[in-house]
Amino acid sequence: MSGMARRVLAAASFISICMVLPASAQETVRIRGTVERIEGPVYVVKNRDGAELKLTVSDNPLFVAIVPAKMADIKPGMFVGSAGMMQEDGTQKAIEVHIFPESMRGTGEGHYDWDLMPKSKMTNANVEQAVDSVNGQVLSVKYKDGEKKLLVTPETVVVTYEMGKREEVQPGTRIFVAAAKKQLDGTLQTPRITYGRNGQGPAF
Questions:
Q1: N or C: which end of the chain has fewer CB within 10 A?
Q2: 49 and 118 together in one domain
Q3: Average pLDDT of the segment spanning 154-180
Q4: Which residue range forms the structural domain that includes residue 27?
């Protein structure tokens, strides 16, 4: 595969990382878990609800690594995603902030329900301004239908994405799969796995 084709596929894969699944996608499963063991082509994953799932990858799969970043990396004009909890004052307290590469600009843009925690929200938007506050830093972000203020505290996890490698996904690796399809034999299959590199990982 050429470098250009690989980049095109990478951009396409990134686009669905934080998208909300359509209600009609009854045959798909979202996975947040840890690889327990590898049995040939099968990743045996312990999902966050305790269920053991058997996951395989399709032909030419893509592996996307989550790597640490910091608030200082976030500049006005960047596109970010944040899962968090709404506060009484209307701000969203960020559990995690994802800095999207430019190829991911527009990914899942908007403010909507998310399944990270009960009543959690996802906001994917353009950064307008970052200012310090008593409780942390506040990101003013704007999306096509509105705007929000994201409170980033010292406990907030800040990460970004890089192209990954199959061999980095080993027992103990935390993974996130947006939409794995159920197969007739009961296994699940996905064209891409997002995983934490060097102990990092998707929030459960």
A1: N
A2: no
A3: 94
A4: 3-66+164-196
Identify which of 2, 1, 10 has the alpha carbon closest to the alpha carbon of residue 194.
10
Is 91 a domain residue? Answer: yes
Instruction: Tell me which amino acid residue 162 is.
Output: E
Instruction: Please check whether residues 152 and 73 belong to one and the same domain.
Output: yes
d(CA 14, CA 172): 23
pLDDT tens digits for 16-46? 444 444 434 448 899 999 999 999 999 999 9
Q: Do 84 and 153 have their domain in common?
A: yes
b (16+ CB within 10 A) / e for 124-151: bbbbeebeeeeebbbbbbebeeeebbbb
Same domain, 32 and 46: yes
Closest C-alpha to 54, from 159, 186, 184: 186
